Amino acid sequence: MTRIICNAGMEENGPPGFRFVYRYFVSGNSFYIFSALVLFLVGSITLVYTPFNILMNERLKMVRGLPAYEWWKNPPDEVLLRVYLFNVTNSERFEHGIDSKLELNEIGPIVFRELLRHSDVRFNDNGTMTYVATRTAVFLPEMTNISLDANLILPNFAALGMASYLWDASYFTRYGFKLMMEMLDTKMFIKTSINDCLWNLTDPLVQKAKTMMPGLVPEENMGILYQIYNKFTDEVTVFMGPENGRRFFTVDKYHGKSNLGIWEDSKCDSVQGSSEGVTYHQFVSKNDTLKYLRKTMCRVTPLKYKNEVTKSGMTMYKFILPKNVFSHPQTDPSLEDCFHNPKSTPLLSGLSDVSPCYYDFPIAASFPHFLNGDQALVKSISGLKPTEENHGSYLIVEPLTGVPVESRARSQSNLVMHPTSGFANIDKFSNMTIPMFWAEYNQVGLPWYITTLMYFTVNVLPCTQSIGSIVMMIAGLAMIGKTIFDAVFGYKKPLYSYSSLDLLPSIS
């Protein structure tokens, strides 16, 4: 009779340590032990290197394919541009000297969606990233309650602007300009459509002047949005990476330079430390001054903390454009106005010279409706009703991530009339500051998937990550303890079975 043992019995041979390893690793428990060790190790590591810090650091790296990079490269179309124009209601009475003030009636808003795209992205060796930002505007008729074909009456900004530009030119230059206006029968007010005012505003005087004096008139088209978006493509270099946490996405170079090349004061002319407003550095403090760069403003503007607000279940910080951002240090002669253009005359407080960005055309920026400006600005203008609520600028940012959630950037463009004596009809506008239009850039919010990820990162993850780590460690230890307990107290010898070949039926 032959005896067959069904269990090979290898664990019975060898030292006790070998038998223990065989029982609980070779005999099917290896995955259980491995899982226990992984749980314990992950829990231990995440107590030191928290998921929150890992997630925040990965965002700073701007890795292609990850959400932070992809959302930045093709940002959600959530920025609305609202344009407000000023219709002159008493043009004939003003021109004939009956009225001493221009009466303005605000028209708008005319609403567009601003599209921002980033291209030609290059990662540099010095911890910076270079890209090309392109902005375009798309009209939204469903959000605009006025037709683009509607007409309005405007001051002839082309004629008035050239006269103001030539206010200190030689007598012969000014006389030649005056003859040209008389020959073309140039009017001081023009009737045009809203669409032409925005995209295709021209005048025979401009066309003639460009032919005769191309240096004076580099552009025939004076359309408001045409001037803004015709060449709204910029090369920007920003800081990135965990080593640049406080400088994350602040500008290092703008068109290859660290300054605008406009203002004499190096601090005012610098673009370093500013942001285009797509995102800000992480862990924003209430003491921070956020610097906003918009080339239509021809300068970097500061944003100061005002108060906390709650949006989407998260505590956020509201920053505002200070009331004195366009003020001038007139009360203290020792202070220097670093945004003063030495080629121009000093402006009233509340105006910022932007002429260097517009071919030296006499244009100044201000708050809409001359909010916070010198009262002398409205001496010759009526119809303006400035309020902080409707004409101030603010930004709401989530402080941990530095992501802007809502913003309203508002500014007004104005034609500055220098002393213009000697020009027929134009002398009525002498020393006036004429509002041209004002615009509001409104980030209306974020898509739900970005808001949801922000909420998880800001509210859920910091509160649950420590608990999750401890739970994983305890679970891993419990699994390991159970394995040891079973090994010591729960082991049973394997059963053996015997069989006799003689019991098998004969095949003969």
UniProtKB/TrEMBL annotation:
<feature type="transmembrane region" description="Helical">
    <location>
        <begin position="444"/>
        <end position="461"/>
    </location>
</feature>
<dbReference type="GO" id="GO:0005044">
    <property type="term" value="F:scavenger receptor activity"/>
</dbReference>
<comment type="similarity">
    <text>Belongs to the CD36 family.</text>
</comment>
<feature type="transmembrane region" description="Helical">
    <location>
        <begin position="467"/>
        <end position="489"/>
    </location>
</feature>
<keyword id="KW-0812">Transmembrane</keyword>
<keyword id="KW-1133">Transmembrane helix</keyword>
<keyword id="KW-0472">Membrane</keyword>
<keyword id="KW-1003">Cell membrane</keyword>
<dbReference type="InterPro" id="IPR002159">
    <property type="entry name" value="CD36_fam"/>
</dbReference>
<feature type="transmembrane region" description="Helical">
    <location>
        <begin position="31"/>
        <end position="52"/>
    </location>
</feature>
<dbReference type="GO" id="GO:0005737">
    <property type="term" value="C:cytoplasm"/>
</dbReference>
<protein>
    <recommendedName>
        <fullName>Scavenger receptor class B member 1</fullName>
    </recommendedName>
</protein>
<dbReference type="Pfam" id="PF01130">
    <property type="entry name" value="CD36"/>
</dbReference>
<keyword id="KW-0325">Glycoprotein</keyword>
<dbReference type="GO" id="GO:0005886">
    <property type="term" value="C:plasma membrane"/>
</dbReference>
